[in-house]
Design brief:
The protein has a domain at 91-103 and 234-458: Rossmann fold (3-Layer(aba) Sandwich). The chain is α/β, with parallel strands linked by helices. Helix 1 (14-20) packs across helix 6 (119-129) and helix 12 crosses helix 13 (270-280). The two termini are 36 Å apart. The protein is built from 23 helices and 15 strands. It binds pyridoxal-5'-phosphate. Pyridoxal-5'-phosphate binds at residues 110-112, 145, 228, 265-271, 320-321, 399, 419-420.
C-alpha cells in the first residue's frame, strides 16, 4: 500500500496512486514499506534482458498490478521500435573507473522517455482496474522537454488524448520542431502567447474548472496529468539502476556486493530519488552525487541544511535542470526522517510561505552518507564537453557534462547518468567544441549535420528524421482562448 509523505491521507494501492498523481490533501505517495532484494536474488537476475528486469522490479513496486498487466505495459514501452538499442540503457566505459549510462535511446533523445514510454500504459491500466471507462485527457504545460516526451509516450495509446501547451517563442527551435512534428491521432500541440508561468497557470486553472470538468465528463473524458511526481513515472526509473549495476557485474568490473556511485544531473530530484529507492531495496549503491547547474539550490541544501529558493533563477545551457523547487526532495526527506509526516508538512508549509526551510544538523549529516552535492556552471560544462571529446572521442550533452564534473566527488567506481543525447543540445555542444564560432543564428538541422561530420558521431535517429517540412499545423492562441481551444481539439467534446 501507498501512504502520504505528509501523513494526511488513507493508504491506497499503486493503481490509485497513479490515477490520482498526488495525494489530494497535499503530499506525495510512497510505498508503506519498500520491497527488499537480497544479493542472491540479484544474482539470479544477472542475465535478464532489460524487459525482464523491468517486469521483475515493477512487479515489486506496483502492488495491485497483476503479472500479466505489468508484462503488457513493459512490452508496449521497451520494445525495439521505441528504444533502438538492444540493452535499452547501454553502459559505456569512459575512463578506468568511470562509466556513462546512456538514458537517451528513446524516441525524444532524453531520459524522460524511460518513464514516459511506460507511464501512459500504467495509467490506462490503473483507470480500467478502478472501473473508469472514460478516455483520459492529459494536459501538459511545458518549457520544452517534457512536452515532447509526453506526446511520444501517449501517441496512439487507445483511450487517451494528450494536449501540450508551450510558450510561443519560449522554447528552443529544436524543442519546438520536435513537438510540432509529432505524429499520432491523439496528440495536440498549442503555442500560447505568454511565458511558461502563464502557460502553467492557465493549465492549472483548467484542471480546477468545474464547469469544464462537467462538460468533459458528459463527453466521456476525464483529466489527468503526466507530472513527474506521479508514481507511474518514478517507479520505472528504478529499473535502469539495477540494469547498470548488473551490467558491471557481468563485465567483471565489480563483484556482486561492491559499492557503485552514481552521479545524476538533477532538476526535480526524480531521477536521483529513483537511485535512492534502488539503494533502499538493496542495490549496493555507495554514494549518489546530486549534480546541479547555476541553479544550485540543492548543492547549498546538502552542504548547509537550509533549502533556500529565494535566489535568482538562471536560464542555462542545461535547461532541464533549471528548477528552484525540487518536488521529489519531499519523498527523500520523508524516508530520511523515518516517516515523520508532520515534520515534512511543516517544512513544506515553510517552503511555500517563505521560500525556505532548515533541517537539523544530525539529519544533514545522515544525508551526507547517501548524497553528496556539487554544481558546475556553463563554462565548466563546456570545458568538460571539450575535454572528454578530446580524451575519449565521446560527446556529452550539457546536462551530462555537469554530472561528469560533479563525479569528481565519487569514492568508488562511478556511473554518470547521461540524460540527453548531445545532438538535442547541438548549439551548446557546438559552442563547447568551437568556442570562437558564433552559432546563435544557425539553423539547428544544419548545425547537427556539421557537428556529426566534425565529431564523426551519428545524429540520434529521432533527431535525424526531423525536418521543417514535417511540421503539422498547430494553433497559436491568446491565454484567454485556452478553454475554447481545448474543447475544439477533443474529438468527442
Ligand atoms: C528532466 C531532466 C533532468 C532532471 O531530472 P529530474 O528527475 O527532474 O531531477 C536532467 N536532464 C535532462 C536532460 C532532463 O530532461
Amino acid at each position: 500500500m501507498f501512504i502520504s509523505t505528509r501523513g494526511n491521507s488513507k493508504a491506497v494501492h499503486a493503481s490509485e496512486a497513479i490515477m490520482r498523481g498526488m495525494v489530494p490533501e497535499g503530499g506525495l505517495y510512497l510505498p508503506e514499506q519498500f520491497p527488499t532484494i537480497a544479493l542472491a536474488d540479484f544474482e539470479s537476475h544477472l542475465d535478464d534482458s532489460y524487459q525482464d528486469l523491468a517486469k521483475w522490479i515493477l512487479g515489486l513496486l506496483l502492488d495491485d498490478f497483476t503479472e500479466e498487466e505489468v508484462a503488457a505495459c513493459v512490452e508496449a514501452a521497451y520494445n525495439e521500435e521505441n528504444f533502438e538499442h538492444p540493452s535499452v540503457t547501454p553502459l559505456v566505459k569512459l575512463t578506468e573507473g568511470s562509466y556513462v549510462l546512456e538514458l537517451w535511446h528513446g524516441p525524444t533523445a532524453a531520459f524522460k522517455d524511460l518513464a514516459l514510454q511506460i507511464m501512459p500504459h500504467l495509467l490506462v491500466t490503473a483507470l480500467r482496474k478502478n472501473n473508469c471507462q472514460k478516455d483520459v485527457v492529459i494536459l501538459v504545460a511545458t518549457s520544452g522537454d517534457t512536452g515532447k516526451a509526453a506526446l511520444e509516450g501517449f501517441k496512439n495509446v487507445p483511450g487517451t488524448q494528450v494536449v501540450v501547451f508551450y510558450p510561443d517563442q519560449g522554447v528552443s527551435p529544436m524543442q519546438e520542431l520536435q513537438m510540432t512534428t509529432t505524429e499520432g491521432n491523439n496528440t495536440h500541440v498549442v503555442a500560447v502567447k505568454g511565458n511558461f508561468d502563464d502557460c502553467q497557470s492557465a493549465v492549472k486553472e483548467l484542471f480546477a474548472d468545474q464547469d469544464m470538468i462537467q462538460k468533459l465528463d458528459q463527453a466521456g473524458y476525464q483529466f489527468s496529468s503526466a507530472n513527474s511526481i506521479n508514481w507511474g513515472r518514478l517507479s520505472p526509473q528504478v529499473v535502469y539502476y539495477v540494469a547498470a549495476y548488473l551490467n558491471l557485474v557481468r563485465r567483471e568490473q565489480i563483484q556482486l556486493g561492491d559499492p557503485v556511485d552514481f552521479s545524476v544531473p538533477t532538476g526535480n530530484f526524480g531521477n536521483i530519488l529513483a537511485a535512492y529507492m534502488a539503494k533502499e531495496m538493496g542495490l549496493p549503491i555507495g554514494r549518489l552525487i546530486c549534480a546541479s547547474n547555476e541553479n544550485n539550490v540543492l548543492t547549498d541544501f546538502f552542504n548547509t541544511g537550509t533549502y533556500n529558493a529565494n535566489r535568482p533563477f538562471y536560464r542555462t545551457i542545461s535547461p532541464s535542470m533549471d528548477i528552484l523547487i525540487s518536488s521529489n526532495l519531499e519523498r527523500y526527506l520523508y524516508l530520511k526522517t523515518g516517516g515523520d509526516g508532520e515534520q515534512i508538512s511543516q517544512w513544506m508549509q515553510d517552503l511555500k510561505a517563505t521560500g525556505t526551510f532548515t533541517i537539523p544538523q544530525a539529519l544533514q549529516e545522515a544525508m551526507a552518507e547517501d548524497i553528496l552535492a556539487a554544481d558546475a556552471d556553463a563554462e565548466t560544462a563546456k570545458e568538460v564537453i571539450a575535454r572528454v571529446f578530446e580524451d575519449s572521442r565521446y560527446l556529452l550533452d550539457p546536462h551530462t557534462a555537469v554530472a561528469v564534473s560533479a563525479a569528481a566527488k565519487a569514492d568508488h567506481l562511478v556511473v554518470v547518468d547521461a540524460t540527453a543525447n548531445p545532438f538535442k543540445f547541438v548549439q551548446a555542444v557546438s559552442e563547447a567544441l568551437a568556442p570562437d564560432k558564433d552559432v546563435s543564428e544557425a539553423n539547428v538541422l544544419d548545425l547537427m549535420k556539421e557537428l556529426s561530420e566534425v565529431t564523426n558521431t551519428p545524429v540520434h535517429r529521432a533527431l535525424a528524421k526531423l525536418s521543417q517540412s514535417g511540421e503539422r499545423p498547430h494553433p497559436v492562441i491568446e491565454i484567454a482562448e485556452i478553454r475554447d481551444t481545448l474543447m475544439d481539439l477533443l474529438p468527442k467534446a
